[in-house]
């Protein structure tokens, strides 16, 4: 009998299973806003990585009504957030099976010690889904590990008074009187934590001049203020395409909720901001750059393990500094020097390459990761540095990455002289000095 995994990643315990992968999720949700009630059907195309007699999925707080395996009812148990499905016969390594889960209930965020809450959450008048890092099982059964990327088709039926936004491109919007069904297709592989649904009384505005189809989705009351934060969204995409390579998805959507949010939310092909961030000051604009850059670093290239979170957040923080120089604020080097001085006064107890679950979202991971990239840039020069970034994205497009992949990639293109630099910035606790500026 196949052993039940207690979790594929030590940072997010009891989530994910490495014995199989999901190739495609087809999610059909019917959601009643006033009752916060979900009736749903999830169809998963599963491929075995080793011989399997059962498949263990992540699903929390919701009731499983029925499970089918290749169209036939299957025995299952649902305990402590793990849905164990008994297969009809042993599935050999490389074999595929279709698992259908019918489920219902009142979705709510998942709370974990050290990581806080994440998942499906009610707004004053709508819904957001904040999946990072453990919120996906709050609304659909999944293999919740960042290394298991799949394509998605997400269909949501809800009151016609509301607009629904999900990952990827809108495939159809069909009104049935009081309800409307919104269907989105995300063909590029996506980790479960990046899947999202946003529901609100929104208007959709197209952004002119962007290199890819770009939309701003926001309440009517904020329409006249959107340019304060997002007026240069088209220029920002064009700048990042020049620095990192082509935008990795078919389009980009920004959702602005009617509520205030503590932080913006990252998801694939889509970012979500609170109304409080519709401002023109650098504190708000830098977050617009940060979330956009995650489309390259975090969404297209996704760390296979949460210990390598700096490959997302360090790159996104450095993108803020790059945009700062592009838009006429402080130069990238000025930002780097200022943040190095701040970090030098903080405790020197963080290992960037493996910060641990308590510190994975510590601001030092973001800033030290960005400083590591700036140190690399100062060492190898601008031409080599940006060639490396574009090549890194191109070679690992739509895949999973690890810190060792990045350091090996850089060494192959910039020489072994960067090995000591990476060891100092990634593996040692003491903050290294920045190399002299060329």
TrEMBL record:
Keyword presence, Signal: no
Major location category of this protein: cytoplasm
Keywords: Cytoplasm, Hydrolase, Metal-binding, Metalloprotease, Protease, Zinc
Top EC class for this record: hydrolase
GO process annotations (BP): proteolysis
Subcellular location, record wording: Cytoplasm
Matches recorded under InterPro entries: Aminopeptidase_N-like_N, Aminopeptidase_N-like_N_sf, M1_LTA4H, Peptidase_M1, Peptidase_M1_dom, Peptidase_M4/M1_CTD_sf
UniProt-annotated catalytic positions: 291, 366
Matching CDD domains: M1_APN_like
Domain of life: Bacteria
Residues that bind Zn(2+): 290, 294, 313
GO cellular component, one term: cytoplasm
One Pfam short name: Peptidase_M1
Cofactors, names only: Zn(2+)
Coiled coil: none
GO molecular function per UniProt: alanyl aminopeptidase activity; metallopeptidase activity; zinc ion binding
Aminopeptidase N-like N-terminal domain boundaries: 23-194
Catalytic reaction annotation: Release of an N-terminal amino acid, Xaa-|-Yaa- from a peptide, amide or arylamide. Xaa is preferably Ala, but may be most amino acids including Pro (slow action). When a terminal hydrophobic residue is followed by a prolyl residue, the two may be released as an intact Xaa-Pro dipeptide
Binding note for cofactor: Binds 1 zinc ion per subunit.
Matches recorded under Gene3D superfamilies: Neutral Protease Domain 2 (1.10.390.10), tricorn interacting facor f3 domain (2.60.40.1730)
Domain Peptidase M1 membrane alanine aminopeptidase: start-end pairs: 234-425
Enzyme Commission number, as recorded: 3.4.11.2
Isomerase as UniProt keyword: no
Protein family according to the UniProt entry: Belongs to the peptidase M1 family.
PANTHER family per the UniProt record, alphabetical: LEUKOTRIENE A-4 HYDROLASE
Protein name (Swiss-Prot/TrEMBL): Aminopeptidase N
Organism: Nocardioides guangzhouensis
């Amino acid at each position: 009998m196949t052993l039940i995994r207690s979790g594929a990643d030590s940072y997010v315990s009891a989530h994910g299973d490495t014995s199989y992968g999901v190739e495609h999720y087809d999610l059909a949700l019917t959601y009643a806003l006033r009752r916060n009630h979900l009736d749903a059907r999830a169809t998963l195309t599963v491929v075995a990585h080793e011989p399997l007699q059962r498949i263990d999925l992540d699903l929390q707080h919701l009731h499983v009504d029925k499970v089918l395996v290749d169209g036939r009812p299957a025995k299952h148990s649902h305990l402590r957030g793990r849905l164990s499905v008994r297969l009809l016969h042993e599935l050999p390594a490389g074999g595929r099976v279709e698992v259908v889960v019918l489920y219902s209930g009142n979705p709510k965020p998942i709370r974990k010690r050290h990581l806080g809450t994440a998942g499906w959450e009610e707004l004053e008048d709508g819904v957001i889904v904040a999946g990072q890092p453990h919120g996906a099982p709050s609304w659909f059964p999944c293999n919740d590990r960042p290394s298991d990327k799949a394509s998605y088709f997400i269909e949501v039926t809800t009151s016609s008074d509301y607009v629904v936004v999900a990952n990827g491109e809108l495939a159809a919007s069909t009104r049935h009187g009081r309800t409307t069904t919104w269907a989105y297709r995300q063909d590029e592989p996506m980790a479960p934590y990046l899947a999202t649904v946003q529901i609100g009384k929104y208007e959709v505005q197209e952004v002119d001049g962007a290199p890819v189809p770009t939309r701003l989705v926001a309440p009517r009351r904020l329409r006249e203020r959107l340019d304060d934060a997002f007026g240069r969204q088209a220029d920002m995409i064009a700048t990042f395409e020049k620095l990192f390579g082509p935008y990795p998805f078919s389009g980009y959507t920004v959702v602005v909720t009617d509520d205030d949010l503590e932080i913006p939310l990252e998801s694939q092909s889509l970012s979500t901001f609170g109304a409080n961030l519709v401002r023109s000051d650098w504190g708000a604009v830098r977050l617009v750059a940060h979330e956009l850059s995650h489309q390259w670093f975090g969404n297209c290239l996704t760390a296979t393990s949460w210990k390598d979170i700096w490959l997302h957040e360090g790159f996104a923080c450095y993108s803020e500094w790059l945009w700062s120089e592009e838009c006429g604020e402080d130069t990238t080097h000025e930002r780097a020097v200022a943040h190095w001085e701040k970090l030098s006064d903080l405790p020197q107890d963080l290992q960037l390459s493996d910060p641990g679950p308590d510190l994975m979202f510590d601001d030092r991971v973001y800033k030290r990761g960005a400083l590591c990239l700036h140190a690399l840039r100062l060492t190898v020069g601008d031409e080599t540095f940006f060639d490396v970034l574009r090549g890194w994205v191109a070679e690992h497009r739509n895949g999973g990455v690890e810190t060792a992949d990045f350091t090996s990639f850089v060494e192959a293109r910039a020489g072994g002289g960067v090995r000591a630099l990476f060891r100092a910035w990634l593996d040692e606790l003491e903050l290294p000095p920045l190399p002299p500026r060329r």
